[in-house]
Amino acid sequence: MKKLSLVFAAIFSALMILSLTPPQQPQAATDDSLARIQQKGTLIMGNSPNYPPYEFTTNVNGKEKIVGMDIEIGKQIAKDLGVKLVVKKMDFDSLLVALETGKVDMILSGFSPTAERKQHVDFSDTYYTAKQDIIVLKTDKGYYQSRTSFNNKKVGAVVGSIAYDLIKQQMPGATPVGMQNASDLVLALKAHKIDGIVKDSASAVAYANADTSLAAIDGHFTVSGSESGNAIALPKGSLALQTAINKSIAKIKQKDLINKQFLPAAAKYISTGAETHSMWHYWTYFAKGVGYTIGISFVALIVGALLGALLAFVRLGSITWLKTLANAYVAFVRGTPLMVQVMFIYFGLGMFYNISAIVAGTLAVGLNSAAYVSEIFRGGIEAIAPGQSEAARSLGLSQKDTMRYVVFPQALTAIWPALGNEFISLIKETSIVSIIGVADLIYQLRIVQADTYRGVLPITIAMVLYFIMTYSLSKVLKHFEKKMHHANA
């Protein structure tokens, strides 16, 4: 039976890999990429809003707003196409997967058209070209002169960015450190965990101007060809859409809108955000994050408890093929990271059915919890002495009634502390859904960090909020535990 479970787990793994691999699209006789967008009336733009002045979030009258140069470019393109711009937020290293699986129509997020990326997607003309700088602490500015000054030092960059590749290629004496977003890198720099951050010059100067403890120096990197600029990533074969977008880019360049309008507008928001350091100003962000976290946890808890109990009963039942499938499911889910499961449901299953980020995240957390809840239920039920069931059956109770009135109540009392731990862990595990753009507490924390340029205080507030949620739940669970013990006394 164990061998069969392993076989099914292997089959599940193979299916997951196949689903995550974008199918080869046949060459269409006619390219409908532009017509399809105009027909639906929206242009969905993939974006990672933590890269000032290209794209970042700010607080405008208590409401979150995504602003920046790339956002303005996206609006101009959508206007020229006669459609509405829809910005879909997610981690930077998830953008390519989102484009390849049809979650977004284009990527406009400080993207550089590298040779490796061109193998998977098409690119528009370059809309902006800038050199790469290195952000350092102002107190260290005299020590570091260029990229050659970082031998035996740790240098950070956003994972998946051209800056990260430049560290590996042109800073051989430095140790590259990759992180998911710019605010984490700045926090690491201030905490002396890294010695520098490689970023696009416009972004580096923006951070340095907004934070008096930082400085930007010229990295003197050598970047040739189109890789030195930023372009818009598009699905392979979308020539009609590419042509239309290139016309918009040409108009933007001709009127010099980036330097005359888009960058100055972004600088205004950066200045405003840098001056707004009161955490109370961002209470709506944290409240929204707590709301999403509690909502996701509650739904995932119900899914996990019901499905987990069902799996436990199936695994304890007598139907062989159902037991095999249930064992394979539990083995597979427990043997793969929750992050991978979230991405699989959102991107993999999203290739066949358009599932929203919050539904995908909630479903992934619930399905993951079900595997662990199943083990808790199974262990608790099997721990009940067989004599209990035998005595109940001898009194004329059916197998169903024996489980319902004798075995399960005793098992539930015994496993309640373990279930409580799983439910408390569930609240903390929901933080993983931020990678696909769900506005949970972690996602809101990053927004506040990016907007205020403060790293530790938002983290401290998030820690306190998580503690309040988990402590409150633990007290509720403790109350019911006492009632169950009192009832069984």
Automatic annotation (TrEMBL):
Location in the cell: Cell membrane
SMART domains: PBPb
Topology of this chain in the membrane: Multi-pass membrane protein
Signal sequence region: 1-28
InterPro entries recorded: AA_ABC_transptr_permease_3TM, ArtM/GltK/GlnP/TcyL/YhdX-like, MetI-like, MetI-like_sf, Solute-binding_3/MltF_N
Keywords recorded for this protein, A-Z: Amino-acid transport, Cell membrane, Membrane, Signal, Transmembrane, Transmembrane helix, Transport
UniProt key word Thylakoid: no
Pfam families noted in UniProt: BPD_transp_1, SBP_bac_3
Annotated ABC transmembrane type-1 domain residues: 290-474
Transmembrane regions listed in the UniProt entry: 292-314, 353-373, 455-474
Family, as annotated: Belongs to the binding-protein-dependent transport system permease family. HisMQ subfamily.
Identification of the protein by name: ABC transporter substrate-binding protein/permease
Record organism: Lacticaseibacillus suilingensis
